[in-house]
Known about the structure:
Number of strands: 11
Bound molecules: calcium ion
Strand content: 25-35%
Radius of gyration: 24 Å
Structural class: alpha+beta
Number of domains: 2
Largest sheet: 7 strands, antiparallel
Distance between the termini: 18 Å
Amino acid sequence: MxxxxxxxxxxxxxxxxxxxxxxxxxxxxxxxxxxxxWDGKAGLEDPPGDAHGDACDLVGFSWDQDPDGxxxxxxxxxxxxxxxxxxxxxxxxxxxxxxxxDGPRDGRVEVEYAPASDGVVRVQVYRGxxxxxxxxxxxxxxxxxxxxxxxxxxxxxxxxxxxxxxxxFEVFSARDTSPATPVADLEDLAARRLADRFPDEGDIxxxxxxxAPAWWVAVPLLLCCFAAxxxxxxxxxxxxxx
Length: 242
Ligand SMILES: [Ca+2]
Ligand SMILES: [Ca+2]
Ligand SMILES: [Ca+2]
């Protein structure tokens, strides 16, 4: 094996190792009511003290995509002044990226969080007016832990979202004692008995959902390296090429 071919093989092996190690190093979010797995994930702070006459003042919201592109994880954090009372969150999802959140194909995720009930989180997913999923689990801090943070997951299949789609979302908070609110008239939080909005203006747009696992990237790169090295070795072996 020539030195250049050996160098190409070693480079390819190093590339593969880098891709594999980066995949292994990525922390996956786990629905367990613990929040260390959210370190380094996408998210933004929300100003404290801007909620509308309600204890459910959002101070942070984070999100993360499933590694296999099957859905999204969310994590909401409210201010310490909120106490440990129950809360309600509403995530509106613009699934067709038309800037509206109340279309017949748009999604709505209703989340009820009860710290006093062992931090249980109940999730209801709607597509338009159709409820497509409901589930629950102990995915929030309980009262003894402060009752401020909770996490949940939404499958894209329950929203009608397919791989590669751009989606937007925005979040509202309220006491869980508030009645269900219509999606229309989004800006009038007080009339809808909602407390806070995230983000304060606009929405969060997510990049197309990646579906290819890392080895889909690594294998073609490795094949290209080997092909280039093999071609170089053949050129050097031909008479008159040196
Ligand atoms: Ca977790
Ligand atoms: Ca806030
Ligand atoms: Ca829409």
